[in-house]
Each structure stands twice: as structure tokens, then as C-alpha cells.
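Entry 12.
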Amino acid sequence: MIKRIIVKYITPLAIVLCSLNAQARWVTATGVGNDQNEAVNDALENVMMQVGADVKLVQEYKNGVLQNDSFQMKAKDPIKKVQILEAQATAQKVTVTIKAFIMDNQVTKRCSTSSIRKTLVPVGFKFVDSQAYQSSMGIENIPKELDKLIFDKINSSPKFVTKSIVNANIINNNGKYVDDNFKMNNLQAIASRSNAQYVIVGTINSLALSEVGNNFLTKMIYYPTRSINFDVDVYDTLNQTQIFHQNYQAETDWLFKQDEYIDIRSDRFTGSDYGQRLHSLAARAAKDVIYELECKKVYARVIDIDGDDLIINIGSDSRLNIGQVFSLIQRSAELGNQGDQYDVYENTQGKYKVTAVYPHSAKIHPVDLNNNTLNVNSGDLVSIE
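Predicted 3D structure (C-alpha cells):
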């Protein structure tokens, strides 16, 4: 038997690094397994994936035929301590939520751009397809509840200027999935109308109810279960990239009758296992987004030109201050092989200093007029130094 080893590396999303000093932090993750030990191991793997891990794919071949493949994972940052926050068992599986204490050797929570508020527009939660919607019977208002739980939490953070929720279907068009270019064009249009850099999109994959089986004794012992499964994605529309994706899921006992009216903001629902897990996942999602965006580099769009001065689309509401310096990034349009047009951005040597700040915009002036970049246009970008 020949064993072939293919090594692949999975790294965390790029963040602006602001210090080489190690920092300890807690990371929360959920795991699922046939028993608690298996569920904890699954949660630990999810922790390692969040903070960045080396993943080795081991494939076993016999006579040229793949017999088995498996993953081996090694954390880049050591896990010092693990606490089980919550464990729930159903007839089918065990779900645990753990908190792992790690020494983060690469990322710190403070950075040079964390004082500038990021502009973000949320797109309201939508069901991924008709099957996901049908699974929500009795709790059809969960999308609006997730909007409130997650986006209100992000909005309360002093790190963001959060715009009003936009009601748009980014995932599909009349039941058909859209391609990435069409999706990004929609996201850019939403961000442009809201004068924001980032767009956050929520998608509900399933709220399915599962019976415990037909066995009379089993039905007496166990309650039916119901799943919670949703995705949160964040897009940087100025750089036309997806910078964050995370799935949140759990399965808990469901104590409500099939034909019962359910008020999802009632004490009975919020105090139930399902309601508590929903609130817990939503709080974790909001925290993850805040942490992910805190040290992202700040970009702004040139919206007007006044002689040698440029007007950009962030201002005092983003906590921009006079004297801060930006670098110019020029945009040009290129044609692809299929005749499609796409934007190309090129860094320049041009430096601009903030000379005037308004509520939603600012004026920046060249640091050196003798080394000023020519042919600056509306739609070009600037990034903070």
C-alpha cells in the first residue's frame, strides 16, 4: 500500500498586523459528535480553523486506487485551556460549545486603524432556498429576529458606522442562484447607495424540525429537536472581495407543539433551549464580525476633485481627524477576453493629508505638490497610512 501525503495550508483571513507581541485570547466554537468527547474534538478543530491551522490531507492509494483520505490538523497558536460552556444531547447527537484559551502570536486587538469607524451596511437575513423557508414553520419571523440580534449588536459597537438594513436578495434571483460577478455588482450598488465600504449578508440554511422516531418509548423520553443553521458573510466592496464567512449551527430540544402560536420575543421562547441557543449564536456572530473588521485597513472613495484637493466619502462620523495621511490608489477599466469590463487598481506614490473634515466626507491635500499624482478621477481609492 502506497501512502501519498498532500500538504495544504489554510490560513486565516488577512488582517492588518499591528504588533509582534503575543496576545492571549478566548475563542468560542461549537462541535457536534456521537458523544461528548467526539463533539469536543470537533469543536477544537473548529477553533484551530478560526485562528489558522496547517491542514495535512493524507490519501492512501492501493494499486493506483484511492482507498482512504483523512485530514491531520496542527494549530499555529497553542491552546492553553479549554472550557465547556454548554452541552446538549439529543437522540441523534451531542452538541457542545467550548471556549479555548490560546496564545495568539500574530494578531492583536489594537491596531493603527481601529480608532477609525468602519462603514458597514447590513442586508437583511434571507432563506437560502424554498426548502429552508418551509423548515421555518411556526417561526417564520426568525430572519427579522436575527437582523435585530446581530445587526443591533454591531451597531452598538463604537467601531462602526452601521447604515440602515437593506432588504435585498443577494443569494438568488427568482429561485436561481446568481454568479459571483452579478452578486458583487449588486453588493457594490448597495454599498454605494449607503456610502459604505463593507456589506454584511445573512443567510438562513435550515430551521428544520426532526422527530425522534416512531418508537413509543423513545418519544416518551426525548423531545423532538430543531436545528439552527445560518451563515454570515462580509464583503469589502471597494476591494471587491469576500473577507469573512462563518457558519453557525446548533440543534436543541423543541418544546413547542406543532400548531402552537409562537411569539419569538416572548419570555417562553427566549427562555427555551432553542431561544437561548439562537441568542447565543447571534451574539457570537456579531462578536466575530466586530473582531474580524476591527483591524481591517480603511479605504475611502474619491467622490469629487477640487483643484489639487480630493474629496473622499468618509468624515467625522468615521472619527477621521485633520492631519491623517492617505495613499492614493488609481482605478482603471480593463476589458477581459470575453469582452467583459473589470476594474484594475494600482498603488501610487501619491500621499494626501486630511485638511478639512465634514460629517460624511473630508478634504485631503497632496503632501508634496512636486510629486503629485496626475489624472486622479472620481472613483479612485485612498487608503489610510
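Annotation: The chain has three domains: 1-112, 114-295, 299-384. Helices lie at 36-51, 130-134, 142-155, 180-194, 216-221, 267-270, 273-294.
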